[in-house]
Amino acid sequence: MEKKYNKSVRFTDTTDEKFGKIAEKLGRSKQDLLAEMVDYFYKSKKDPADLSDEILKKELGQGINRIISFIKVQEKDILAPMLAEQKIQMEQIQGLGTEFEAFFEMLPEGKMRGKFVSLATEMIKASNGSREVLLEVQKNQKEVYAMLRGKGRLQDHYIKIIEHYIQIREGLNSITQARLVKDLQDETRRQLKQI
Hints:
By secondary structure, this protein is mostly helical. 78% of the residues lie in helices and 2% in strands. The radius of gyration is 61 Å and the shape is rod-shaped. It starts with 12 loop residues before the first helix and ends with a helix.
């Protein structure tokens, strides 16, 4: 569809010359270029007389201020808490490092001391104490076992002596001489003393 041009604009020869060069450079007709220029200034709300673009600078400044405000809010709401938490974590890590160094302190000659060595030494002492107690218990068990065996032997000897006494005594009767009874009693006493 063909556009209808029914309005005219008047301007100087110098302006017409500049206008023609711009139209030729952009490859448009003067009428199309004029329509595009009007649309541009209408939509952008720029003042063609403002060659230093003060409005544009003002809008850019406001945009930059909005961006800076956004960044500050992000910094306050997100970055600052993260940095504070990171600082706390770093302090905790340093504290753990200090505790680790105290726990596993290394001397220049390559030996270790510190809480770990103290705990290990205490555990070894406790272990040695337990070992000594265990050895003492084993020794006492052997003694008790030996005593029980000795008691059993004693019981066997007593039983043999009494059985011998009973056997001989039964062979003797009341008619037998008192001397033989006396010898039996003496022999039984002698055998008991030998145990």
